């Protein structure tokens, strides 16, 4: 299975990288851009006996290593 | 419109961050994980008169600032 994981700062948590990208886009002439948020995109290949088993393992990995649950949210998609 | 942009190193380009994450997952006991790639996930709000107009603007932004076309691929999704 191929897994795509998206990790983003929670709503309300200041995102300085997003603000920097937004300012850069504005200075390049893209004034129509708003609310830029920058996060991580992680692709993983995984061997798991079933989809629920994979989901449980991925949730563990995210909570332990891939995301910081205090300030970050994550979601993922599974492709078989 | 809300745009989600995914930027990843091209196939064949060495991804040291992905390798580091893979090793960390293995050392935490997730031996079933392979081929980890780490990229950027960018969310943007955009005002555009139409979907094709938005697509053209986003492609420009990616080529100029958000991705390095020499070593990175990008794709995006538009939600209206």
What does this structure look like?
- The structure is a homodimer of 80-residue chains.
- The first copy, chain A, has 80 residues and is of the alpha+beta class.
- In chain A, strands 2-1-3 form a 3-stranded antiparallel sheet.
- The model of chain A has no long low-confidence stretch (mean pLDDT 95).
- Chain A contains 2 helices and 3 strands; from the N terminus they run E-H-E-H-E.
- The first copy, chain A, is elongated, with a radius of gyration of 16 Å.
- The first copy, chain A, has a single domain, classed as Mth169, Chain: A (2-Layer Sandwich).
- At the A-B interface, strand 1, helix 1, strand 2 and helix 2 of A face strand 1, helix 1, strand 2 and helix 2 of B.
From the structure above, extract its key features.
38% strand, 35% helix, Mth169, Chain: A, alpha+beta, 3 strands, 80 residues, homodimer
Sheet with the most strands, sense and barrel status of chain A = 3 strands, antiparallel
Q: Taking strands numbered 1, 2, ... along the chain, how are they ordered across the largest sheet of chain A? A: 2-1-3
Which CATH architecture of chain A would you pick? 2-Layer Sandwich
Radius of gyration of chain A: 16 Å
- DSSP strand (E) fraction of chain A? 35-45%
The quaternary organization reads as homodimer
Q: What is the domain tally of chain A? A: 1
Helix-strand makeup class of chain A = alpha+beta
**What is the fourth-level CATH superfamily of chain A?**
Phosphoribosylformylglycinamidine synthase subunit PurS
CATH-defined topology of chain A: Mth169, Chain: A
What is the H-and-E element order of chain A? EHEHE
Helical stretch tally of chain A: 2
Mean pLDDT of chain A: 95
End-to-end Cα distance of chain A, whole Å, is: 5 Å
Describe the global form of chain A. Answer: elongated
């Amino acid at each position: 299975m191929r897994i795509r994981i998206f990790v983003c700062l929670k709503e309300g948590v200041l995102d300085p990288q997003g603000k920097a990208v937004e300012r850069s886009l504005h200075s390049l002439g893209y004034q129509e851009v708003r609310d830029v948020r920058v996060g991580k995109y992680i692709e993983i290949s995984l061997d798991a006996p079933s989809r629920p088993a994979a989901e449980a393992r991925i949730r563990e990995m995210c909570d332990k290593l891939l995301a910081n649950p205090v300030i970050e949210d994550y979601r993922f998609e599974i492709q078989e």
